[in-house]
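## retry 2 of 3
previous attempt timed out at serialization; input unchanged, resubmitting
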Amino acid sequence: MPEISRRLGGDTDPLNDLRARVLVASAISCLDASYDAWTAGDSKAPLSVLLDQAMGTLSEEN
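## retry succeeded, writing output
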C-alpha cells in the first residue's frame, strides 16, 4: 500500500492514507466478486472481462 499512497501523492504510511486502503480493499472485493461469478458459471465471459465489469461499477455515476 505504500506505493499506492505515494502514487496518489499522499502519506506513505498506509495507516494514515485512507484513500490507498479503500482502493486496495475495493480492488480485492472486485476480484473476489468476479472470481465467484466466474467459478459459479454465471457467465461464459473470461475472468478478465468480469473483473473489468466489476471495476467499472466503481466509477459509474448513479
